[in-house]
Amino acid sequence: MRFLSIFPLAGLLIIILLIFVKTVLLKRKGIPFKAGTTKLTGTNLLLFPLFLLLLLVWLAALTSQTFNIHSFLYPSALTKNLVSSLLPLAAGAGIILLSVLIMSITLIHFKTSLRFGLNKNNQGKLITEGIFSFSRNPFFLSLDLYFIGQALVFPGILFIAMTLMALTGIHLFILKEEKFLRMHYREIYTDYAKKVRRYF
Hints:
Blueprint: H1 7-28, E1 34-35, H2 42-67, H3 86-109, E2 115-116, H4 138-153, H5 157-185, H6 187-195
Parallel strand pairs: 1-2
């Protein structure tokens, strides 16, 4: 069942490819991709190098675990599997497949809208149909599922810690985005939030 260990890296690459293709298709239609702008000042400026270092360690660990090679960026004890059972491995691969499916459906239901970050110049219409009628945040839900699946495929201390950090960071960002959406869409978003749950 070693082939299941390819799922985290393959899933990540597919998610990145899906987002890239969506942005290219929108650009061809004349719809520019706009990300929210966060200036790197103060605490953000200090945390950014730490974020880049964690990202580098995570990608190195993900690649080395996938191909069963050693990396000098972290001690091998951090990636040693705490559980060696087929069930979590298979469940993790299945959850990663589900995350890719949810991401695909989400990007389709975004239609001509794709906004990352809190950009008040790129509001567009609030999307509440399709997959957005089941989850207010299917994009982030798919990312959460991806990290959970990854931690099940590679149940080492490093991947579990990265997953917990990712889930916390995504949740905090969702709370910040909800505040932003309430401020800009007012009662439309408030009514929507009453009908549809944050995750599922």
